[in-house]
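--- STAGE predict ---
source: upstream dedup step, 1 unique chain passed
mode: sequence only
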Amino acid sequence: MDLNLSDEQKLLRDSAERFIAGSYHADHRRKMASDPLGFSPAVWKQFAELGWLALPITEEFDGLGGGAVEIGILMEAFGRGLVSEPYVATVVLGAGLLERCGTAEQKQASLPKVADGSLKLAFAHSERAARFDLAKVATSATKTAQGWRLSGSKIAVLDGHAADEIIVSALVHDHHGPSGRIGLFVLPATAPDLAISDYARLGGGRACNIELSDVHLPEDALLGDGHDALPAIEWAVDRAMAALGAEAVGIMQTLLETTLDYTKIRKQFGRPLSANQVIRHRLADMAMQVDEARSMALRAALKVDAAPTERARAASGAKAKIGKCARFVGEQSIQLHGGMGVTEELEVGAYFKRLVAFDTLFGGSAHHYARHAELGRKT
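--- STAGE serialize ---
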């Protein structure tokens, strides 16, 4: 298998890295951290102009037809800059679900707007009692004469506060009672009886919890034809985990380079830290963990369109392994910087916080080791 990047992929990587290096500096990140929106609408507009929002959308809906590997290249660059724009929420999760489940009319109405930056999406699926079990949904959608009535609550909705529309998963109750099917419903963020409470995420960006108190929706709010949406949800979350894994690799690479530079200039007993053999061994271990994480992220991206069990094993394997590598690299980086590593003067702490947040998103390493083993028994 040829794992070298194509010329187009190299161009994407180089342009993304140039843009991130020029736009994302410490002052910009601090400004975004105290901004109630958590990101810059001007930068989001630039993402649209560069074609990044259209990257994975098919050409039929004004997209570029890119795949999970291209998203991974972009996300690794985003990790280097600790980007806080709602890319995963809107493009990877939201647009992905629309393209996977929506009718032709629904796709035509929304996907070109995602591509041009005028529509931001969020995906509300996690619930407090579910403990990362994607099949466990208590929020209900009851069929009414006018359409649908949604009730329930969702937690940890990535960038839900900034979304124009929110895709909500709910257990469908038709005229015969609970159907056992999960449906996806698109509702405007300004819908009456929808309460959004947002909060800052560890390491940058924002998330929110939402309460649905008998939210009334028209019939066409249901995505697609009413088939069980669980397979599509699993696909979208596995795809998001592959993208987030690539972002974590970008963060780890930056921590490795920063730590390497620091150990060359920091002197102890008249010699730079990097002259110490024990320090060199630790740096070598960090480099090895970054490479292992990169290969796992690439494997998860390559398997995004494989058979469901194969795809899910690759995604869970990557999430578990990268989570473990990320914690190791983050902790070593903090330690090798000494007391400076946890101060706000250096950005090492901010990168480490984002890695800790990555490990908890969509389930931690322990959850995904268990899922990987369970899926292995099914093959």
